[in-house]
Design brief:
- This protein is an alpha/beta fold.
- The chain is about 40% helix and about 20% strand.
- It has a seven-stranded mixed β-sheet, covered by helices on one side. Strands 3-2-1-4-5-6 form a six-stranded parallel β-sheet, with helices on both faces. It has a two-stranded antiparallel sheet with strand order 13-14.
- It is globular, with a radius of gyration of 20 Å.
- The structure holds (2R,3S,4s,5R,6S)-2,3,4,5,6-pentahydroxycyclohexanone.
Amino acid sequence: MSADLRIMSADLRIGIAGTGAIGKTHIERINTRLRGGKVVAATDASPTFGKATAEQYNLEFFPDCDSLVASKKIDALIVTAADDDHERFVTSALKANLPVFCEKPLAPTADACKRIIDLETSIGKRLVQVGFMRRYDPGYRELKRLVDSGEFGAPLMLHCAHRNFSVADNYTTPMAITSTLIHEIDVLRWLIGEDYATVEMILPKASKHARANLHDPQIMILTSASGIRMDVEAHVTNRTGYDIQCEVCCEEGYLKLPELPTVPRLRHAQRATPICRDWSERFVEAYNIEIQEWMDSTKKGRVDGPNAWDGYAACVCADAAQQSREQKTAVPVALPPTPAFYSAGAF
Ligand code: ISE
């Protein structure tokens, strides 16, 4: 039986490169909740940590990504390693002709993403999907369905917020763009179905919870090719909770991203409605749908989700946003038109 036929009929054997927090949640969701795939092997930059995780989940451990992809024991790779290792691991999978799901960002810079695109294009087959899970969130999907329906007229302005309770000590000012706002950069481009023309970063007064190497909050202003204006607040040390807002102001009405349903609690003459504490809680359903759909399409030999071009497009905008923060002015987002190789299924 050919390898492709085996992939279509049996469980997808998945290797995971990076066994930190997000890696572990993917192992758990695939091996206990989703259908059609199984994480069977792992690697990690820290052998001690990686071996312990492999033992915990009964996975075969490989000392590095190259030996994992060369082992012939996996049909696809998930990259959940540190951002700086993404390019190396994705390249390793591509060279072995393996489908690869890479958590966002595809790589830390647009130049690194471009090298991935050039390699994938030279192979002549789309193999890379990027982990922009918001596109799978039922609320964002409904928002997009309504925007696309045209019922509310053209979108004119979007007001958005991305608020975290806190971030790790190694989180720095540029990471507000590469790690946090990168989600809005992708999901808003997908939502309005247009590329960006300009981006501008504005730094308001810094919170007392910010640190020497982290200016918090930050505001990103995006303008689309047709002139839609989008403002996004990133406030990652809010000490309040995980709060994601998106309001689309259209010619004929307003559309708002729904909150997760929670029961209001009335007690002691007060009404309280809990909000999420972090992204893993807020987007758990999005992650489940994303990974299930990725496994399903991978078994059919397709990439239906955000592809390497989407990963590149997000990083071109992120690089321009970093420049804007340094230059204190709006900067053009110089993304070339989507090549034909990537245009099928775009947005
Ligand atoms: C983190 O890496 C994520 O991806 C979360 O979704 C985001 O809310 C957080 O700000 C990032 O640091």
